[in-house]
Design a protein that fits this description.
Layout (H helix, E strand, L loop, with lengths): L1 H4 L2 H15 L17 H4 L5 H5 L6 H44 L4 H47 L1
Length: 155
């Protein structure tokens, strides 16, 4: 304790800052893996699940209703995963700005500009296209499921 007291206020502040940087103060706590797989439809059961496992209980109407409900839930999961990824990208940009200030103080403006260009393109284009594809996957799953339900009406 005496060694810490002999550092004085400036020494304690420097020690605190050094510890914070060492602890990863610029690390983004949100990782893409925590967001889940945005391709939700690929993780869903086969579209003919209800038709295969209905056991004579479902009608075409009730089977189709289950398909629509599951397709809507799929789209909500895609939206939630997209919001998580957007948060990751936004936070990454904030952390990049902090890293530019710390690592390249004389070139921070150019560093930030490059980071903003990269993250904005990634967020606005890549993520937008991925989520559109994934929403289409949910819609296609729903359509395929409803088509499989039609077999119930033919049996």
């Amino acid at each position: 304790m005496r060694a810490v007291a002999s550092l004085g206020a400036a020494g304690i502040t420097a020690l605190s800052l050094a510890t914070a940087v060492w602890a990863g103060v610029f690390a983004n706590p949100v990782f893409p893996a925590t967001c889940g797989n945005p391709d939700v439809a690929s993780a869903m059961g086969p579209p003919n699940y209800f038709e295969m496992h209905a056991g004579g209980v479902l009608t075409v109407k009730s089977c189709s209703a289950l398909c629509k409900t599951n397709a809507a839930q799929c789209k909500r999961a895609v939206a939630a995963n997209g919001a998580c990824m957007n948060t990751f990208l936004s936070r990454s940009l904030q952390f990049n700005d902090a890293e530019c200030e710390a690592d390249y103080p004389t070139q921070a403006k150019a560093c930030k500009s490059n980071a903003h260009d990269y993250w904005e393109v990634t967020r606005k284009n890549d993520l937008k296209n991925t989520l559109a594809d994934d929403r289409t996957g949910c819609a296609n799953w729903g359509s395929d499921c409803i088509a499989a339900c039609q077999i119930l009406g033919q049996a």
